[in-house]
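Structure tokens please, single chain.
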Amino acid sequence: MTLLSTLIYGLHFTQFGKRHILTRGMVWPILVNIYLCIMIYMADGALSPYYAALNVMIFGFALLMPWTFREALFLSVSTLIFYLIASYTNHLYIQPLETWSIFFTNLYFISLTSIISTTSSYFIAQNRISDFNLRQ
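Here you go.
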């Protein structure tokens, strides 16, 4: 993951990277979320505590990156999908009831973080637009 992050950062200094800045900015968190979900899959699936890192990723990127509502929503939904895939493919469907309980609790927190972060991203973007208009 570090090597891929370095390569994506290196694209920043190329003409291709400067022309496709939005795509490059969205690829990195998606890759990080995919690798986190691979770790979740390899470390007990739905029972893995690594789901908390997904919450940090959603919250951090949605609030720190200057994204629009749709971009933050895309990150949140894709993270939810990756988590569902990682949990389900780790044989969640044949696990006992307490595993399902933990899975739904983790899914609830990821969903709640997504809703809060996406909503916050919307208001932050509106604030940036308002600030820009006032300056102009």
